[in-house]
Amino acid sequence: VITEKDALVHVSGHPNRDELVAMYQHVRPRIAIPVHGEHRHLKAHAALALDCQVKQAIVIQNGDRVRLGPEEATIIDSVHAGRLAWDGNRAVPLEGEMIRVRTRSLYHGSAVVTLVLDKDDEVVGDPQITTIGVVEENETAAVHEQVRDAVWQAIDGLGARTLQDDGAVTETVRIAIRRAFRAGLDKRPVTTVHLVRI
After folding, report:
1. Which helix (H) or strand (E) segment is 32 a member of?
2. Cα–Cα dist 87/127, whole Å
3. Are 194 and 112 in contact (CB under 8 A)?
4. pTM, to two decimals
5. Do 93 and 84 touch, CB atoms closer than 8 A?
6. Burial of 144 (0-12, 13-18, 19+ CB in 10 A)
7. pLDDT at residue 151, rounded to an integer
8. Quick one: DSSP state of residue 117?
9. Which of 27, 40, 147, 178 gets the highest tally of CB atoms within 10 A of its CB?
10. DSSP class of residue 123?
């Protein structure tokens, strides 16, 4: 017996074809449901099971519910399935929006712009910009000035009626900010616009 004390050894959990054939010869199941590998691996495994005289082989996807009896085995339903990540004190979907946005922020940073409009739909003061992970400290002022210019141009291009629509103003400013960062830094930060009316 060779153990990790004798040499650097690794035992795969993946049987090869001959080992699968031997398993089917020993166990002789009536149904085979391959569950590990890519779809092409599952199909090949199911075909091998049928070659080994298994009466039925079903290829499934994550979340498929299979009825094994009393009649022939069949897929009867599907349930939500996916990988989870531990975040703080809760499990969250790995493919969910929160993880997606966080991953994007990791590579592109984030930007928050606060814009204040008065009762006449006029901008009060300069838009306030906060960035995280987008610019180096020594370039912050210059980049933020370019972004402010883009915000002013976007606001100037809006008609009086559109300026009364919070959603339209917010989206127009958000797009202008993203374009400015893309043009200046080739970055696409997660961008949030806070529109305040006084």
Report:
1. strand 31-32
2. 33
3. yes
4. 0.59
5. yes
6. buried
7. 93
8. E
9. 147
10. B
